From TrEMBL:
<dbReference type="InterPro" id="IPR015943">
    <property type="entry name" value="WD40/YVTN_repeat-like_dom_sf"/>
</dbReference>
<protein>
    <submittedName>
        <fullName>Cytochrome C</fullName>
    </submittedName>
</protein>
<dbReference type="InterPro" id="IPR051344">
    <property type="entry name" value="Vgb"/>
</dbReference>
<dbReference type="Pfam" id="PF24684">
    <property type="entry name" value="Vgb_lyase"/>
</dbReference>
<dbReference type="InterPro" id="IPR036909">
    <property type="entry name" value="Cyt_c-like_dom_sf"/>
</dbReference>
<dbReference type="GO" id="GO:0009055">
    <property type="term" value="F:electron transfer activity"/>
</dbReference>
<dbReference type="GO" id="GO:0020037">
    <property type="term" value="F:heme binding"/>
</dbReference>
Length: 395
């Protein structure tokens, strides 16, 4: 969704410039909700969003205002959890500024793809060389996520133009698949099943979709709970489709043959779930975004267990992945955005701040593992960074 108009900022010289320049891409409330930075860090942070190098007077006025009114503070401070594990971050800042790069995924050749939602961009990084390419998608698509499907095609969700899109990486040819129902207006997150069928959520439309790449046919099913806002999608080993509810205390189970949707009601009323993942035993792990926790659901027994996230009830866990024998997620409601590891055997946490270049800023909204399972692909959408996380075994 495009940003709304600017919010009230403190009075001071440079305020009008900040409102005019910064709110062209995001709410100025994003600035107010930050943890604050030094002038040097504000300069770097702004450089990841917009190039003001040709207008030094404007740049200096903006930086002076931000440094004076939003210095480093403990506002929304995270609660780090130390531990024995060491990890390594590799980062790439994407070429086009202000695009809100997100949702990296790896192809069979080891390239990492992303989408730039605000820039109608599909991007690709060769992590061995650092070379990056960007493909311009149809104007107004506002791609929300990308997956690599059969024949190596990149499939994206056209979140604002009600399409699913396919890009041939060899030719750059784009094929769009419009939704068959005008009420299905916002394809969101997608995953391929073992048969090559693409399943996707439509958050605002309260639907779940199915696209057959062989025929282009799209089928839709409604969530049984009004305003449940289907969000994250994962496919279980038995083919069952699992969907998170970002608007209600539920998970959704979809039968891959009939598309019948069944609700699993979660215990606490104010629970909302951005995303989920499934471990090797078929256990569903989910983030309680609304109440700041991590949840576990056993489909066989129906047992539900929850743990409080280290940074508390307002930490807003967002992305999640089963990786390296543990559950990894982030706390997006605190600063810095924390990458959290939960060991299901010992039920212990460890966490790290996620860098955006030399600062800690941005938000991680989706994470996935590499194809070989040896690394975790993440991003910082607010600063246009794509990143890869590996566990340092000291080898």
């Amino acid at each position: 969704m495009l940003p709304a108009s600017a919010q009230a900022l403190p009075e001071g010289e440079g305020k009008a410039l900040v409102e005019g320049v910064c709110s062209s891409c995001h709410r100025t409330s994003v600035i107010e909700r930050s943890s604050g930075y030094t002038r040097e860090d504000w300069q770097f942070l702004a450089s990841t969003m917009i190039d003001l190098s040709n207008n030094p007077d404007t740049e200096n006025a903006i930086l002076d205002y931000l440094a004076a009114n939003f210095p480093p503070s403990a506002n929304r401070a995270a609660t780090p959890v130390p531990g024995p594990l060491k990890i390594r971050f590799e980062q790439w800042q994407v070429p086009t500024l202000g695009q809100r790069s997100r949702d990296p995924v790896e192809d069979a050749a080891g390239n990492i793809w992303w989408v730039g939602q605000w820039g109608d961009i599909l991007g690709r990084i060769d992590p061995r060389t650092g070379k990056m390419d960007e493909i311009r998608l149809p104007r107004g698509a506002k791609p929300h996520s990308v997956n690599i499907g059969p024949k190596g095609f990149a499939w994206y969700t056209g979140n604002r133009n009600a399409t699913m899109g396919k890009v041939d990486p060899a030719t750059g040819q784009i094929t769009e698949y419009p939704m068959p129902d005008p009420a299905a207006r916002d394809p969101h997150t997608a995953e391929f099943d073992a048969k090559g069928i693409l399943w996707f959520s439509l958050q605002g439309s309260n639907m779940i979709g199915r696209l057959d790449p062989a025929t282009g046919e799209v089928k839709l099913a409604a969530s049984p709970r009004e305003n449940s806002r289907p969000y994250g999608v994962k496919i279980a080993a038995d083919g069952t489709i699992w969907v998170a509810c970002n608007g209600a205390n539920c998970l959704l189970r979809v039968d891959p043959e009939t598309m019948e949707v069944t609700e699993i009601t979660l215990p606490r009323d104010k629970t909302t779930v951005r995303r989920l993942d499934i471990d090797q035993d078929g256990i569903i792990w989910w983030v309680n975004s609304g109440l700041g926790g991590l949840g576990r659901y056993d489909p066989e027994s129906g047992e539900i267990t929850e743990w409080d996230s280290p940074s508390g009830p307002k930490s807003h866990p967002y992305a999640i992945a089963v990786f390296d024998g543990a559950i990894w997620y982030n706390e997006s409601g605190v600063r810095p955005d924390m990458l959290v590891r939960f060991d299901p055997d010992s039920e212990t946490f460890q966490s790290w701040p996620i860098p955006s270049g030399p600062v800690y800023a941005g938000i991680l909204r989706h994470m996935r593992t590499s194809r070989d399972g040896k690394s975790l692909l993440i991003h910082q959408s607010g600063t246009n960074h794509i990143a890869r996380v590996t566990v340092d075994r000291g080898e």
